Amino acid sequence: METLLNKTTEQSISVSAEVAAAIALGKNLPILDVGPYLAGTPGALEQLGVDVRAIQENLGFFAIINHGIPQELIDESFQQLEELFSIPMEEKLKHRVGYHHQGYLPPKSSILKSTVIADKIAVNTKKDTNAAWLFMRNRSEDDPKVVANIRHRGLNQWPESLPKFRETLMKYHLAMEQLSLKLVPVYARALELPANYFDSMFKTPEYYQRCAYYHPEENLEEGQYALAPHSDGSFLTLLPMTPVPGLQVMTPSKEWLKVSYVKDALIVNTGQVLNRLSNDRFIATPHRVVNPPTKRYALVFFFYPDDDANVGPIPECIKPGESAKYDSRSFYDFFVPYLDDLYHYNDPEFMKEA
User: Fold this and answer.
1) What global pTM score does this model have?
2) Are 124 and 308 contacting, i.e. CB atoms less than 8 angstroms apart?
3) Beta-strand relationship, 61-65 and 31-33
4) 158, 226, 270, 350: which is deepest, by most CB within 10 A?
5) What is the Cα 26 distance to its own chain's centre?
6) Domain hosting residue 189, numbered range
């Protein structure tokens, strides 16, 4: 594995043995302890930068422990999630997802497919069996983007019968946003950039919360998934682990790694935003969710830069003799076509402009 020269100590830092072994074996996700970094331990950021670089150039997924998110908050969020999907269908359908991709997505109501990974995996043609409730950054009615009806920047659809759900999820969003911001410098150092390199891109970061329910499907069609293979569109994604299996990650050899449960850990991966910024140096790994043995819930937090942030390749990431593999565009101009490419709804009426 390559090393990073620490310009402060002039010492060479190597990839952690555990990380190198996990990448080489491809049987389990690498596990990183971010506690020392979050506590400000000298050298912890540089070591994380080296380890994350090795992961992002090879596997693209890892788990973190000692991340600082209270387990009580995660547990309460999952409890509220169970209640969310237990409310009557009549109420859920009042909040059905539409033009802004915010609200309730019934089971088997969309086909998930992405042209970005079509060369790696056959294009999906089956309806996903999972149900989901989708939220973006919460906005008020007088928010300029709400007033202007900017797509995907509308009002979240909160269930009226579960006021505690909104309260809990807002706390969860804030905690995940704060942790994501703390992890951004790690990716800067992983790309051999100054730790504050990305700061200007995250003044008012966007996020997308996917609350998902995966039920055991008895009548699964051949080639049908709870959630079909795809790659995220995020800068980074955070996902609390659960004991119920289902998530699988594609390895560099195009085999599917079954993600094993690690107590109190968060799964972390990067998506197409960082893939673009790094000019393909950091991969956006395809992953999927297969039919679970029992009910499975997921609290997926996709973290993004500001809408006006440029997500074209970083000049420092374009090697000599290499050209930019992506165009320069704002994050928002990337995000809208990304969602349109990924989600294909049964009923186009729901996607008409509000």
Assistant:
1) 0.93
2) no
3) parallel
4) 270
5) 21
6) 60-347
pLDDT in tens, 193-245: 999 999 999 999 999 999 999 999 988 888 899 998 899 999 999 999 999 99
Distances (CA, A) of 49 to 78, 79, 239, 272: 31, 34, 20, 19
Residue 324 tokens read as 């930019």
Q: What is the CATH number of the domain that holds 99?
A: 2.60.120.330
In a domain, 53, yes or no: no
One-letter amino acid at 121 equals I
| Cα distances (Å, whole numbers) of residue 88 to 93, 94, 137 | 9, 10, 25
Per-residue pLDDT averaged across 289-311, rounded? 97
The DSSP code sequence of 216-247 is PPTTPPTT--SEEEE---SSEEEEE--SS--E
Structure tokens at 335: 């995000």
| 243 assigned to some structural domain | yes
Per-residue pLDDT band for 121 (boundaries 50, 70, 90) equals: confident
Q: Are 334 and 233 in contact (CB under 8 A)?
A: yes
Nearest to 66 by CA among 259, 264, 267: 264
Determine, yes or no, domain membership for 253: yes
Radius of gyration for the chain, computed over Cα atoms and rounded to the nearest angstrom: 20
Kindly state whether residue 50 falls inside one of the protein's structural domains.
Answer: no
* pLDDT, position 350: 47
